[in-house]
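To whoever picks this up:

The parser on our side crashed when reading a file containing two proteins. I've narrowed it down to the boundary between the first structure block and the second sequence. Both blocks are reproduced below exactly, byte for byte. First block:
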Amino acid sequence: MRLSTVRRALTMLMLVTAIVPSVRAAEHVTLKNGFGLDCVRREAAGDKVRLYLAPDVAGTVAQSNYLEVAADAVVRVEQVADAPQAMAAKLPAAVSGGSLPAEPTRIEMHQMLARAGAAHNIDEDLLASVVRAESGGQVRAVSRTGAQGLMQLMPRTANEMGVADAFRPEQNIAGGTAYLDGLLTRYHDNVALALAAYNAGPAAVDRYRGVPPYRETRAYVARVIREFNRRKQGTLLAGAQ
């Protein structure tokens, strides 16, 4: 079944890349054992270092959300910037069918992603990671190329996916998920290729027979995977408490 296949592929990506991103600019820390992660900040604790992984709901760093490692286990620290591609834009009411769409609550967003994921057998955390990389969760986001909404659908793609209004959250997520599902099918559940095609188009992936050598596309694929890993790492940490 697709769900198990996609989850296996995502788990493999998580194990290979072993990256956990932060929501803001952060430091990417590489350890002696090869494990790498992005942390919001580091804090010395005797002969150990605490690596704080992500902000809490209020946007501050949760005091319990950290990994503690030996100080001499850190071999390299690099600055990392992680910004979504699209900029939020206020649209005239006429563009979105007479009224501006309301920003969904966290619970509503979760429910929409869960429904779309269940409908297409795609891990909800992957969809949430695409939303974050594409629009930063901004319903009215518009890119410089004209991509719209949460999952940054181009007008032609939105039309092909049956999306009447790309600025309506549920329609946008449904259309973006359907499109991603088609790409996963096309590339035999190779998540990296599907993400590259989502960003650069299937033609570019087919031309290069892999992730295109475009800086933006490669950064995009890495950004989505980092976000996915952060979400999975957060689940593991929550379950361990």
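<<boundary where parser fails>>
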Amino acid sequence: MTHVVSDSCIRCKYTDCVDVCPVDCFREGPNMLVIDPDECIDCAVCIPECPVNAIYAEEDLPAEQMAFIKLNADLAKLSNWKSITKRKPPLADADDWKDKTDKLSELQR
């Protein structure tokens, strides 16, 4: 099993999680992060670090978020989604988006 970043991360991109990841499995896109399932060791240290509760163990992912398993895997392979290993400031309007749901249409690839 691996961990998955859900739609809560879209348009927020808080990076608290990358500081604690021992294997650098996070990939950064324009307006969200994903977890590379080939790199994740299922340690779960990232879960409590996310201020918007966007990270789940795959088996705990809510039913309406299941598409994010494949989405994380696919986006992690894109050449423009680079590894991120150090915390950065969130997106400028992250606080405006952090409590919104159903943000998949806002995803920038």
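After patching the parser it read the second block fine. The CA atoms of residues 7 and 102 lie 7 Å apart. The beta strands are 3-5, 26-28, 33-35, 55-57, 82-83.
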